[in-house]
Design brief:
Strand content: under 5%
Structural class: mainly alpha
Helix content: over 70%
Number of strands: 0
Length: 186
């Protein structure tokens, strides 16, 4: 794990305020935005940073997206970044959610609105699946990692995601230890 890089807290906060306002689609959309803006556009993060953040945060309770942002905030600006990043990221959507909740409560039960919300939900699942497929292609290189990916998919479908992450994390650690011993490094 690398030490934090140095990015200004104001720059980090402004970038995440803007990204938070457009992070539609749950985790897949959030990861795509973070990688596109903080990675490709600004050069602040790498795909490896995002993969590392996911590996650490998937086993924790709470919102993974907010945890990923906190982790990336730490990577970019140390502990102050870890505190400011999630606050900045959720400020705009929290205000928007409060306003949307008030609007939905004020509207009568209209079939067109229910239909529109269902259509949005299904589209978001598609965006999430596409982004997870892209991430799988970029991180699961080789037979062993592809096997770990397939095992995670199977375990995740049959049990909880936490069980899948912990089991395959332990398997990965064992494989790495074995490879170190075989290579004569351990």
């Amino acid at each position: 794990m690398q030490l934090p890089r140095t990015v200004s807290l104001l720059g980090l906060s402004l970038a995440l305020l803007r990204l938070g306002a457009f992070a539609f689609g749950g985790m897949g959309g959030t990861l795509a935005l973070l990688k596109s803006d903080l990675g490709a556009r600004r050069g602040w993060i790498t795909d490896q940073d995002v993969a590392e953040a996911l590996a650490i945060t998937q086993t924790l309770p709470g919102s993974t997206g907010v945890q990923v942002v906190a982790f990336l905030g730490w990577k970019l600006a140390g502990w102050p970044g870890a505190l400011i990043a999630p606050f900045s990221f959720v400020a705009v959507p929290a205000a928007m959610m409060i306003a949307a909740s008030a609007a939905v409560m004020a509207l009568p039960d209209i079939p067109a609105i229910r239909g529109a919300l269902l259509g949005i939900q299904i589209a978001i699942v598609g965006v999430l699946a596409a982004n997870m497929l892209k991430m799988a292609r970029s991180t699961a290189k080789g037979r062993v990692l592809s096997g770990v990916l397939a095992g995670g998919l199977l375990l995740g479908a049959l049990s909880s995601a936490v069980v899948a992450v912990l089991a395959l994390g332990a398997l990965g650690a064992l494989i790495a230890l074995r490879n170190n011993r075989v290579a004569g490094n351990g």
